[in-house]
Amino acid sequence: DIQMTQSPSSVSASVGDRVTITCRASQDISSWLAWYQQKPGKAPKLLIYAASILQSGVPSRFSGSGSGTDFTLTINSLQPEDFATYYCQQANSFPPLTFGRGTKVEIK
Amino acid sequence: EVQLVESGGGLVQPGRSLRLSCAASGFTFDDYAMHWVRQTPGKGLEWVSAITWNSGTMIYADSVKGRFTISRDNAKNSLYLQMNSLRTEDTALYYCVKDNGPAQYYYGMDVWGPGTTVTVSS
Questions:
Q1: Closest Cα in chain B to A101
Q2: Measured between alpha carbons, how far is B86 from B40 in angstroms, rounded to an integer?
Q3: Residue B30 CB neighbours (<10 A)
Q4: pLDDT below 70 — which residues of chain B?
Q5: What tens digit of pLDDT does each residue of B3-30 get?
Q6: Could you give the C-alpha distances from B95 to A19, A41, A97, B22, in angstroms and in order?
Q7: Burial of A1 (C-beta count, 10 Å sphere; 0-12/13-18/19+)
Q8: CB contact under 8 A, B108 and A91
Q9: How far is CA A15 from the centre of its chain?
């Protein structure tokens, strides 16, 4: 199974900050990586797929990059509604499809 | 509005069975693959199973293989998860999830239901 390791596990930031979250795959997954946002009590929401393609309706302050084993989710100019937990998920080799353990973005 | 609504969760004893259902609306159900994903506070998000648009291929996590069966009825716009020989470690919030494509699973999961809670306990 491919293991997905996210870092940091949590980050404190202020409105307007740039936040970067990293996801590392245990083996090459090409560009088959998705990012999700989850708010408390809600289901996850797809933000980015194929490492860098923004899902329809997602604000352009979100961006993704990377290929192979190292990937990044960047949130430019953090907004109040962006405080949430973010997960990466690999879609290259399955079963199983695997998720990272999440990164919580908290208010500083 | 694109919507998925799960049902069938509840409290069940270890070793017993439960069947989850998911009603889909607002999109052409038989154009897309579908998934079940579960979540617990301790293990986070765990993918459980997926089925292609035409039920041609079903895949499972090792933790549920041989015990769970995914199926769909395109005429009823419905997805199912038959869970047999339930274990305490199957306790979780179960999400019905739409794939972003018909079969390849490469493009992420773009619509999630609110989830249904399964509790396995004696």
A1: B44
A2: 16
A3: 15
A4: none
A5: 999 999 999 999 999 999 999 999 999 9
A6: 28, 13, 15, 9
A7: middle
A8: yes
A9: 18
Partner A contacted by B62 (CB < 8 A): yes
Which two structure tokens, joined as six digits, stand for A11? Answer: 């980050």
From the list B31, B39, B57, the residue with the least C-alpha distance to B95 is B39
pLDDT digits (tens, 9 = 90+) for A49-100: 999 999 999 999 999 999 999 999 999 999 999 999 999 999 999 999 999 9
Tell me how far apart the 2 most distant CA atoms of chain B are, in Å: 40
Q: Measured between alpha carbons, how far is A46 from B4 in angstroms, rounded to an integer?
A: 15
Strand B78-83 relative to strand B18-25, pairing: antiparallel
* Pairwise CB contact (< 8 Å): B46 & A32: no
